[in-house]
Every structure is written in structure tokens, then in C-alpha cells.
Amino acid sequence: EIVMTQSPVTLSVSPGERATLSCRASQSVSSNLAWYQQRPGQAPRLLIYGASTRATGFPARFSGSGSGTEFTLTISSLQSEDFAVYYCQQYNNWPRTFGQGTKVENK
Amino acid sequence: EVQLVQSGGGLVQPGGSLRLSCAASGFTFSSNWMSWVRQGPGKGLEWVANIKQDESEKYYVDSVKGRFTISRDNAKNSVYLQMNSLRAEDTAVYYCAKGGRFPDYWGQGTLVTVSS
């Protein structure tokens, strides 16, 4: 099973600032990496797939990069609605596995 | 509009059984993999199972193999999760989701509580 490790666990950011979230895979997943956003009490929403392709409905301030074992999600200028938990997930192998999540909170 | 409407959660005793259902609309159900993902209380996401369009392939996380069964009925645009021999650690919100690689639509979630 591929283990996904996210850092940091919690990221304190002020509105308008840049947020950088990391995700590391225990072995290469190529570009088969997705990111999800989950707000409290809601289901997750697909944010990024293919490591860098934004899903429908998300603005350009969200961007993903990386391949192999190291990935990054960047939110260029944080808005109030972006405070949430973000999960990475690999789909290169079965079982699909998620990182433990990074909570982006208001500083 | 894509919709995934879940039903079937609730409180069950350890060792008991429960069947979750997910009714899909707004897309061609028979052309899509479907998945179940769960989230324990205050915890992260865990992929549980997924199923190919024609049921020819099914995958399960190790912790539920032999206890959970995923199935679908393309005529009813529905996917199911039969959960047997339930344990306390199966307590979670269960989500059905469209897709087998990176689900792009998720149901509202249904709470399963395993407790005596």
C-alpha cells in the first residue's frame, strides 16, 4: 500500500497570503495524484487531478504541481472560503490512499 | 445536474449488518466506475471499495475484505455497500462517489455507528 504523507498538519494563514501544502508518496505515483477540499460538515470536493489539472468550479488561485513522489498544492491568495481541510490521494495503485489532510486555518 | 443520494445508515450492534444505497442521476451511470469512501469521526478519508461499470472488477481495502460487498444495479442507477460483521472501527460517515480513480462527485454522506 502506498502511504501518502501531508505536511504541515495545520497551516495558519491570513487572508490574501499564499498557502503551500505538501504531499509525499512512499513510492512513485507518476502524475496520478488528486487533491480534495473539505469544508466542515460537507463532503469532499475534487480540486485537482493529474497532479496539476484544476477541476470544474475552482478558480485559478489554486494550482498543483509535482510528479513521482513529491507534490504541492498552492493557493496564491487565500480567500475566506478557502479555509478548509485539504487531502491528497493517489490513484496509481490499489488501494487508493489518502494523506491525513492539512487544515488551513485563519491566522 | 449530477446527484448522488444516499440512504441506509444508522446504529447497529457489533457483528451486525447494514446495507447502504446510493441513487445516482444526472449522468450515464452505467458508463462510470463507482466508489465508497469513509471518514471516521474526526479522522481523514479512507477508500473502502470500488466497482467497474459491468461489475467485472471490484476492489476493497484490506480492512473490509470478506465483510463488505460492493454491488450495483445499472437499471436502477444505484450502487450498494453490504456491510456484514460490523466492528466498532467501521463507525464512520460513508460517502458514495462517482469515479474509480479521482471521484468528481460525492454523495451527502451517511453515518454508520457500530455500538452496543
What this model shows, in words?
The complex is a heterodimer of chains A (107) and B (116). With 107 residues, chain A is mostly beta strands. In chain A, 0% of the residues lie in helices and 50% in strands. Chain A has no helices and eleven strands. In chain A, strands 2, 4, 5, 6, 9, 10 and 11 form a seven-stranded mixed β-sheet that branches. The radius of gyration of chain A is 13 Å and the shape is globular. The N and C termini of chain A lie far apart (35 Å). The model of chain A has no long low-confidence stretch (mean pLDDT 97). Chain B has 116 residues and is mostly beta strands. Chain B has no helices and eleven strands. Chain B has strands at 3-7, 10-12, 18-25, 34-39, 45-51, 58-60, 68-73, 78-83, 92-98, 105-106, 110-114. In chain B, the strands form two sheets. In chain B, strands 2, 4, 5, 6, 9, 10 and 11 form a seven-stranded mixed β-sheet that branches. In chain B, a hairpin with a 6-residue loop joins β5 and β6. Chain B is globular, with a radius of gyration of 13 Å. The relative contact order of chain B is 0.32. Chain A binds chain B through residues 1, 32, 34, 36, 38, 43-46, 49, 55-56, 87, 89, 91, 94-101, and chain B through 35, 37, 44-47, 50, 59-62, 95, 101-109.
